[in-house]
Design brief:
- The chain is mainly beta.
- The protein contains 2 helices and 32 strands.
- It has a 14-stranded antiparallel beta sheet, with no helix packed on it. Strands 1-2-3-4-5-6-7-8 form an 8-stranded antiparallel beta sheet, with no helix packed on it.
- A hairpin with a 5-residue loop joins strand 20 and strand 21.
- Helix 1 crosses helix 2.
- The longest helix is centred in the C-terminal third of the chain and has 18 residues.
- The C terminus is likely disordered.
Length: 439
């Protein structure tokens, strides 16, 4: 009998009554020590704290104003204060001087960071086309879908740049599949990386924008070497493992996606990390597709293209709740599924509420509804059948519904409804317990 190999990492999650992740137990050979991180929230479900039991350095705190701007963040005894204007833009961050600045379209123009102060330039479609610091410069080009198809890196000083490398990106939909690179134009382009994708958190190939869906990354250096990606509970890459299951790179994150631990011989070799999105190390931004996210600021570097129809705060990531929500491409917040048993009119039902904040027009709302049911029904087919057979004790049916709330947000729900009354008292909770089972 072959002994079971101990996994590199295991993440055991606990949730409260409304599905918020309250604790994550961390075990496995890749962790420096076994630990548990406890999370706290305010009444708007914004993450307020992340504190490890054993690691004294993992002690994060956050506070917000009523609309969701940070007032203060802390790491241990170190605090950082934030000042916002009436457009919800940060005008001062005490731990990241000098002051941030924005253009007339709400794009961050001056971005202080831990790697220096960056000047960001945006095109007329509010896409980032260049980022420049005192020692580095990056340039980007996009295709008609706003996918980033080229990245050029430079070294030197402002006004005296030397191009180091050009990287070309090839996609399948929004999932990156190949990278090609050259040091300068006369040199031939070489295949440097390729990516293999499977089902993401939506249980479809790209329903969640690839979050949690990267299976493997192959580095051609020059011979191809494939590394398998592993994840935590929210679609963040935890490890890359080689063919012998050895850890080539291990990553850990703070509650808002900032990198706290990076170990292994190839930690710099993989860009897909937090939320399975490509991280541009020099400037500290994650490329989501539609927008760039800053883990240091805990928000986007530009406004939501959906404007207020995507939420009242145009810069906040997942309404400051990234531990139980994810953003597919930088404009659609998805709340992972948590099934709840309810009694409706004396009948037992299970309603799976999947709130997809993707409203642009009702047609777009319908598109999300058409995409979602297939993956949901497949994912929960076993749950549906179990509920129908054991709880209904008779015929049942699966119903779907679609509606828009007063803010215009699109919602879809799936209900297993008993065709015969099974609740003796009617109303309230009934039937066997069904635990939360997010994507």
């Amino acid at each position: 009998m072959t002994a079971r190999r101990k996994p590199a990492t295991e993440h055991d999650c606990a949730r409260d009554a409304i599905g918020r992740r309250t604790a994550v137990g961390k075990t496995g050979s890749a962790f420096a020590q076994t630990d548990t991180v406890n999370y706290g929230y305010n009444d708007r479900s914004e993450v307020m704290s992340g504190v490890a039991v054993n690691d004294a350095t993992y002690n994060y705190g956050y506070s917000y104003d009523p609309i969701g701007n940070r007032l203060q963040s802390s790491l241990g005894q170190q605090t950082c204060d934030y000042t916002s204007n009436q457009l919800n833009q940060y005008t001062a961050v005490s731990c990241l001087p000098p002051a941030p600045a924005y253009d007339d379209d709400g794009n961050m123009r001056e971005m202080p960071s831990t790697t220096g102060s960056w000047t960001l330039t945006w095109d007329t479609e509010n896409r980032l086309i260049s980022a420049e610091s005192a020692t580095a410069r990056l340039e980007f080009q996009y295709d008609y879908m706003s996918r980033r198809v080229e990245k050029r890196t430079y070294s030197g000083t402002p006004g005296n740049w030397t191009m180091d490398q050009t990287i070309l990106f090839l996609y399948d939909g929004w999932n990156l599949v190949c990278e090609f690179a050259t040091t300068h134009d006369p040199q031939p382009t070489t295949h440097v990386r390729s990516y293999t994708w499977g089902l993401d958190l939506s249980q479809a190939l790209q329903g969640a924008g690839g979050v949690g869906g990267l299976l493997a990354s192959t580095i051609h250096d020059p011979q191809p070497t494939t590394y398998v990606a592993t994840y935590d509970a929210n679609g963040n890459v935890s490890e890359y493992l080689d063919a012998s299951a050895a850890t080539a790179a291990h990553y850990e994150y703070d509650p808002c996606g900032g990198l706290t631990v990076a170990t292994g011989l190839r930690t710099d070799g993989f860009a897909h990390r937090f939320s399975t999105k490509s991280f541009d190390t020099p400037m500290g931004l994650c490329y989501y597709g539609r927008r760039y996210y800053s883990p240091s600021y805990g928000r986007w570097a530009s406004r939501d293209s959906l404007e207020e129809r995507g939420g009242i705060h145009l810069y906040a990531l997942t309404a400051n709740s990234p531990l139980q929500r994810y953003d597919a491409l930088g404009e659609a917040v998805v709340v992972p599924v948590v099934p709840v048993l309810i009694v409706v009119g004396g009948s037992l039902a299970i309603e799976v509420a999947v709130r997809v904040v993707c409203v642009c027009r009702f047609q777009r709302c319908q598109e999300a509804y058409v995409r979602t049911p297939v993956s949901i029904l497949i994912h929960f087919s076993g749950v549906f059948n179990a509920v129908g057979q054991t709880a209904c004790n008779g015929p049942y049916t699966v119903r779907t519904k679609l509606w828009k709330d007063v803010r215009g947000d699109c919602h879809s729900a799936y209900v297993v409804l008993c065709l015969s009354v099974v609740s003796p008292g009617g109303g309230g909770l009934a039937g066997p317990g069904i635990t939360g089972a997010g994507f």
